[in-house]
Amino acid sequence: MVSISQAAKMTGLSIKSIRHYEQIGLISTPPRSENEYRYYPEALIKQLHFIKSTKDAGFNLKESRALLELSEDNMRSSADVKHIALQKITELEKRIKQQQQLLKSLKSLTQQCQGDKQASCPIIDAFVK
Amino acid sequence: MVSISQAAKMTGLSIKSIRHYEQIGLISTPPRSENEYRYYPEALIKQLHFIKSTKDAGFNLKESRALLELSEDNMRSSADVKHIALQKITELEKRIKQQQQLLKSLKSLTQQCQGDKQASCPIIDAFVK
DNA sequence: ATTGACCTTACCCTACGGGTAAAGGTTAAA
DNA sequence: TTTAACCTTTACCCGTAGGGTAAGGTCAAT
User: Fold this and answer.
1) Residue B54's closest chain A neighbor by CA?
2) Could you give phi then psi for residue B27, rounded to 5 degrees?
3) Rounded CA gap, A114 and B83, in Å?
4) Rounded CA gap, A76 and A88, in Å?
C-alpha cells in the first residue's frame, strides 16, 4: 500500500511525473483507496522503475513506452529492442557531433574576444554578418 | 517593402518563427500595409538575420534576445558578450559529456544484445534492474 | 469570374513536467 | 479536542520554439 509520495521516493521520479505518466497512459492505472488516493502495488512500482531507467538512459517518453511494452511482452524479439537502441545511438552520435561543432566555433570566437570594457566584439561581429 | 515570406527566404527563418519572434517582443514590431500585411524594412531584416545566426550558434531565444540587445547597444562592453558565450560553452561541454556517457553505456548494452528472435535481451535486463 | 498564391488571426499540439491554487485527508502532539 | 504538519486530490497556467491546421481576406493573372 505505498502512496504516491512513497512511490516517488522509491523510484526517484517526481510525484508530478508519476501522475503525468498515468495521464498519458504510459503506466497502468493505479488503484485508489476509499479517499481516492492512488496507491502503488509492486507491478506498478516496477513499471515506474523501468521508466526511470529508460529516461536515465536518454530515451524520451515515446521510446520509453515502446521499451516498456517490449519488456512486458514475452513474445518479443531482442531484435526489436536492439533496433530502438541503435536508433538512439545514431541520434546521440549526430547530436553530439553537432554540439561539438558549435562548441568549437564558439570557443574560437570567444578566444578572439577581449572581454573588456570596449564595445568591439568579434562574437557580435560574427552574428551580424 | 518585403513581405513576410520574402523576409523568411532572405533570412532562412520560417514565417511562423518570424511571427513568433514578433509576438514575444524579440524583434521590433513590423509596420503594416493598408491590408494589414506585415512588411520588413532593412533594420528588421538585420534583426532577423542576427537572430538566425545566434540560433545557428546554439543559443536559445532568451540568449538571442540578450545578444541582440547587446548588439544594438553602442555602450556595451565586450565582456558582457563574452560572458554569455562562456556560459554557453560550459553548458555545451556539460551536455556533450552527459550524452557521451549515455552513448557509451547504450553502445555497450547494444553490443551484448544478440538482436535475434529470442526474447532474452540485456538491454531490457538493464532497465528492469 | 475564378484560380492560386499569398496574407491574416486563432486555436490546438508537442515533452516533461514545475508551480500554484483550492480543497480535503491523516497523524501525532499539546 | 484542537492544532499543526504533512499528505492527497483535481485543475489550471507556465515554459521552449515553433508546427499544423482552419477559416477567412487579398492580390495578380487568366
Assistant:
1) A127
2) -110, 165
3) 11
4) 19
Q: A52 near A11, Cβ under 8 Å?
A: yes
Helices of type H across B57-129: 61-71, 78-112, 122-128
Size of interface A-B (CB pairs under 8 A): 159
How far apart CA A29 and CA A9 sit, in angstroms, is: 19
CB B106 within 8 A of CB A88: yes
Nearest-by-CA chain B residue for A68: B124
Close Cβ partners of A49 (under 8 Å, ≥ 6 residues apart): A10, A11, B128
Is residue A91 a contact partner of residue B112, using CB atoms and an 8 Å limit?
Answer: no
pLDDT tens digit string along B7-21? 999 999 999 999 999
Q: What does the pLDDT look like over B31-79, one tens digit per residue?
A: 999 999 999 999 999 999 999 999 999 899 999 999 999 999 999 999 9
Prediction pTM value: 0.88
* Residue labelled with grid coordinates 529470442: B118
Cell of A66: 515502446
